[in-house]
Amino acid sequence: MKEIVIISGKGGTGKTSITASYAMLAGKNAIIADCDVDAADMHLLLQPDFAQSEDFYSGFKAEIDQTLCMKCGKCKQVCRFDGVQKQNNSYKITALDCEGCAYCAEICPVKAIQMIEQNVGKWYISKIKTGTHMVHAKLGIGADNSGKLVAKVKKEAKNIAQETGKDYILVDGSPGIGCPVVSSLSGANYVIVVTEPTLSGFHDMQRVFELIQNFKLPAGLIINKYDVNEIISEKILKYCHNNSIDHIINIPYDESFTAAMTDGKTIIEFNSTILKDILQQSWQKIIKKI
């Protein structure tokens, strides 16, 4: 079983559309993990049934028991995050400002403050239109610990892949280089970075590859919409050559990508033969690499 993680340095590069297309090409041989939990959208293309769901608890927030509180104000004095506010002669916790450090609970003279574990989102196991399963999640508004939720999604996807004897786990990671991306990379056999030929795309791609190199993971690159700026595309290819990064394929700009998304389909299901052929070629190249 091989785990392929697909990430990007920035949003909007076409990462999820490409991952969903690979999911269609892999068919029943792959378990899909949507680890872009902050802005999950793989479900728009793969039509999961949300058959199984479970709340995800992680992190703690302070809560004041007003029946015990003696209104001394010590909690407000020590909170460095302005998470305690005085309202109508009572002290209350502002959930979005509370960092869960528990200092207020420690110094409360009457132990009126409790640290409550938080429900920060949900994770799902769904059957998708390829006949296989997708593990995906949704992080709550303003919630943190996205890295832990990513780890949960990956763990469940791996368990299903092992139980059902699948050949691949396809992971759609978050853009950027933050905690959820680091969590997505854990355990990967091969990493694919999707970029676009813009200055910001090139810069953010370099940051991602620096992160991947710290994990000593084999990696390849896809340039989406490469013909929008062929000068920058050439600079990207030169960077890959100088850093021993596999160049998987270039994908030309094509409005079929947008049309397919609007129709709730991957490009593999759509009527664009050119893009379909390119993605099929790239998928076979990836399979040979791993």
CATH topology of the largest domain: Rossmann fold
Query: What is the annotated CATH architecture of the largest domain?
Result: 3-Layer(aba) Sandwich
Q: Strand portion, in percent?
A: 25-35%
Q: State the helical fraction.
A: 25-40%
Report the biggest beta sheet as strand number plus sense, adding barrel if it closes.
9 strands, mixed
What's the CATH superfamily of the largest domain, by name? Answer: P-loop containing nucleotide triphosphate hydrolases
N-to-C span: 10 Å
Instruction: Find the count of extended strands (DSSP E, 2+ residues).
Output: 11
CA radius of gyration: 23 Å
Number of helices: 10
Which CATH top level class of the largest domain fits? Alpha Beta
Looking at the structure, what is the overall shape?
Answer: elongated
Q: Please state the average pLDDT score.
A: 94
- How many domains? The number is 2
Q: For the largest beta sheet, what order do the strands appear in spatially? A: 3-6-7-2-8-1-9-10-11
Structure class: alpha/beta
SSE topology string: EHEHEHEEHEEHEHEHEHEHH
Low-pLDDT runs of 5+ residues are: none
